[in-house]
Here is the input.
Amino acid sequence: MATYDQIGDAYDLVYPDTGDRVPFVAKVLKNFGKQTVLELGIGSGLFAIPLTKSGLNVEGLEISEVMLDVMRKKAPDLNAYQGDIRDFSLGKQYEAVLALSSILVLLKDQQEIKRCLRCVYEHLEPEGLLLLELPNHPVEIAQSNNSQEVFSNDGNGTVVVIQSGVEGEFWTETWHILKRDGDGFSYENVLCRELICPPETLIEQIKEAGFGVIEEYGDLLGSPFDAESSWRRVLICRKNGVTA
Ligand SMILES: C[S@@+](CC[C@H](N)C(=O)[O-])C[C@H]1O[C@@H](n2cnc3c(N)ncnc32)[C@H](O)[C@@H]1O
Here is the structure.
């Protein structure tokens, strides 16, 4: 069972503000003239569905059957493949690939990241764009190590508590999910891990995979990246591009 199979129907509760970040992604794709897009780990479609509505032709790749079901209930016509970003072959190329919400560091080590980047390269047209949203772990860890956040929706009786902290080489989020179940409640906890990877190492890997980093931002609102304060690191990379 994929990790996100256990999270699927609680996922949207935790990310109610994703819509705020969609316009920036749409703007980047449109500015670079990209129309056909593959989103790695499309999840419940929080980005892909509104991007499709904005006129882009988006498809998805996703390992979790449950996440795919959640997405398909909202957008039955959106084409998504069930598969693994570490090893996929869809037999086609796209003008852009999205790797949002830290998906690259959900992989367990540098070898897996390398395999994923190789597949991305194969699925991009020449001059194709890779838009990567990564964590800026030093800031996130300094500000929220051993913290917890609570998300609830009185309407459907679900409460999610997420505890975050460093465990060895991983930044972990433990999701405690409490759901109304008949007259009682069900409870489960799910561990999600992000590889803590020095940004320079990642950038080196991206370049080795055949991409140039052409723009960098501190979030998906388009703020400038500041190593000391940005929680995110957004890299816009071009296949066979020239590094800025
Ligand atoms: C943090 S969620 C992001 C979902 C969506 N991209 C968003 O930003 O709302 C990560 C998604 O990637 C999927 N995922 C994780 N590892 C994967 C893999 N190896 N192959 C394909 N999908 C994967 C998970 O199942 C989950 O739906």
Notes: The pocket of S-adenosylmethionine is lined by residues 2, 4, 18, 39, 41-43, 46-47, 61-64, 67, 84-86, 100-101, 103, 106 (CB under 6 Å). The mean pLDDT is 95. Residues 110-122 form the longest helix (13 residues). The CA atoms of residues 152 and 242 lie 45 Å apart.
